[in-house]
Amino acid sequence: MENVAPRPPSGAQWTIAADGHEAVIVEVGGGLRSYRCDGVDFVDGYEADEVCPGSAGQVLAPWPNRIRDGAYAFGERSLQLDLSEPSRHTAIHGLVNWVRWELLEESADAVTIGYDLPPQPGYPWALRLRSRWSVGADGLRAEHEVTNTGAEVAPFGFSVHPYLRVPGVPVDQTALRVPARSRVLLDSRLLPVGATAVAGTEYDFTEPRPIGDAVLDLAFGDVVRDDDGGSAVTLAAPDGSAALHIWADREFGWWQVYTGDTLTGDRFRRSVAVEPMTCPADAFRSGRDLIALKPGATWRGVWGLRPGA
Question: Mean pLDDT per 10-residue run, the chain (309 residues)?
Fold first, then answer.
């Protein structure tokens, strides 16, 4: 029998590089495995021989975060998703993070990949997903588009899940800025039960300040937008000598921030997941900022990473 070389758990690896920036995009999940600038890692990714831990770098579609009991109604349908997080009885992070994406176009500094999501019992709509990842002088850029290829309106939300770090700076000492006026209140299953203003509370990061011992796994909303309609979260060294900015365009009105406190082993509180989201958790049930994607319509969103003080 012919020996077959083992494939990495994350499948094919596509490395893109330019102007001192380098990223690795993977086939399984179509996500970001690593990103570095001038040889320094700013993304807390994983090794080629590892199964992706903690959703690191994954694309989350057609919904981000959790859906209560995996049950929702849309139009005249009542639907039930598989409970991909059994411990909390939820469906988490969508349907494309463990599928194999297809290479569509590749160059030295960019790669475009795609996946066609077929209709299925819990989500009976067809979507065509395309992601173009590129690097250049301004850092990493990710351009996503999702088209409804079916004949009916489809519920839709989108996010990505990179873990970020400022080189040499522990999470507790990292200065965090989140341009948002409110946060989602959660129950014991980390599902939304309301929202409240952050002003004057321990969750107010509208001005940069150290994370300290704060335990964060929540969504920030009512985003303060830049002139172009987008926004950015910043992680920085205490003295301001180094920083990483994660920015997103106007399509993303929510930021999820997670300090990794439920991760195990050496990943515990080692980095901060910062996720630009189009909607908060449980949007399939609440309807909050849920996108109703019409037949033939395409949603487009762009985000990126920019190192710099």
Answer: 78 98 98 97 96 96 98 96 97 97 98 98 98 97 98 98 96 98 96 96 96 96 96 96 96 97 94 98 98 98 93
Three-class secondary structure of residue 294 per DSSP: coil
Candidates 241, 233, 217; CA nearest to 168 is 241
Q: How far apart are CA 222 and CA 64, in angstroms?
A: 18
Separation of alpha carbons 108 and 94, rounded Å: 30
What is the model's pLDDT at position 46?
97
Task: State yes or no: cis peptide before 62, omega within 30 of 0.
Answer: yes
Torsion of CA 16, 22, 27, 31, to 10 degrees: -130
What is the pLDDT at residue 2?
63
Per-residue confidence (pLDDT) for residue 99, from 0 to 100: 97
| Half-sphere exposure in the Cβ direction for 118 (13 Å, CA) | 3
How far the first Cα of the chain sits from its last, in Å, is: 56
Q: How deeply is 5 buried, as exposed, middle or buried, from its count of CB atoms within 10 A (0-12, 13-18, 19+)?
A: exposed
Beta bridge partners of 236: 175, 243
Domains of the chain in start order, with CATH, are: 13-307 (2.70.98.10)
Q: b/e for 264-290, b at 16 or more Cβ within 10 A?
A: eeebebebbbbbbbbbbbbbbbeebeb
Neighbours of 128 (CB within 10 A): 15
The confidence score (pLDDT) of residue 6 equals: 79
- Tracing tokens 């299925």 back to the chain, one arrives at 120
168: exposed, middle or buried (Cβ count in 10 Å: 0-12, 13-18, 19+)? exposed
Question: Is residue 172 helix, strand or coil?
Answer: helix
The token duo for 165 is: 């770090």
What integer pLDDT is reported at residue 308 of this predicted model? Answer: 87
- Is there a contact between 154 and 125 (Cβ–Cβ < 8 Å)? yes
